[in-house]
Amino acid sequence: MSQHKVVLLLGSNLGEQKKNIELALKKINEAGNNISQTSEYLMSAPVEFVSSNIFCNIAAIIFTHLSPIQLLDCIKNIEVEMGRINDSKVSGGYTDRIIDIDIIKYNELNFKSERLEIPHKKHLFERDFSRILLKDFI
């Protein structure tokens, strides 16, 4: 099986944000993925919704044997295990969340389905905090 290079963005704006992100990274690793690099943490205001809770964000490069959809299922399961209730694709909008994990790039793949779009264009081109975190990863 070949290894796929994937760029993830993780964020949290509820509870102990850094600990939430660290736990999510641990769970990603325990699921059989190899975390090869992480960025510095970056604090940022919520984007596309109003909240008084500031986000803590980090970028990570992982290597995985999982397909894009298998990886999406893996990270969505981690989000649910950690207590995330609302998924923005399901609820139709953004809300505060204990953890958010997004697949930004998967090798050089261009992929689009109802559940997943790679590369994640909003993070690559529209969101300032993402561009800061991803500058050394893309």
From TrEMBL:
A molecular function GO annotation: 2-amino-4-hydroxy-6-hydroxymethyldihydropteridine diphosphokinase activity
EC number: 2.7.6.3
A Pfam family annotated for this UniProt entry: HPPK
Xref: Gene3D superfamilies: 7,8-Dihydro-6-hydroxymethylpterin-pyrophosphokinase HPPK
Transmembrane region(s): none
Keywords: ATP-binding, Folate biosynthesis, Kinase, Nucleotide-binding, Transferase
Domain 7,8-dihydro-6-hydroxymethylpterin-pyrophosphokinase: 8-135
Pathway connected to this protein: Cofactor biosynthesis; tetrahydrofolate biosynthesis; 2-amino-4-hydroxy-6-hydroxymethyl-7,8-dihydropteridine diphosphate from 7,8-dihydroneopterin triphosphate: step 4/4
Function summary: Catalyzes the transfer of pyrophosphate from adenosine triphosphate (ATP) to 6-hydroxymethyl-7,8-dihydropterin, an enzymatic step in folate biosynthesis pathway.
Protein name: 2-amino-4-hydroxy-6-hydroxymethyldihydropteridine pyrophosphokinase
UniProt source species: Chryseobacterium candidae
